[in-house]
Input
Amino acid sequence: MLKIIRTDTPEEEKWILQGHLIGLWVSELRRIWKKTHRTDGKLKCIVDLNEVASIDKKGEMLLRSMSKEGAQFIATGIYIKHVLQQRCTR
Output
């Protein structure tokens, strides 16, 4: 399961993900991202991954794509930080 919480302010778009970024949940996040992500170059986009427990290869690919579209990730856990450093932000 993946819970997606999205908030907007005039300065920032924030996404909080909780659970597992795997399987069908990757497709769901991709669908919501494409539908609602604001591409204003002046707007910060923060994706909080602190409560994500696991990420599969498709999830890594989606995070890489989100990064290329300007998303900045917050992660404090060793596993998620490792995934981001090794696979998602290159």
Summary: The beta strands are 2-8, 12-21, 44-55, 71-74.
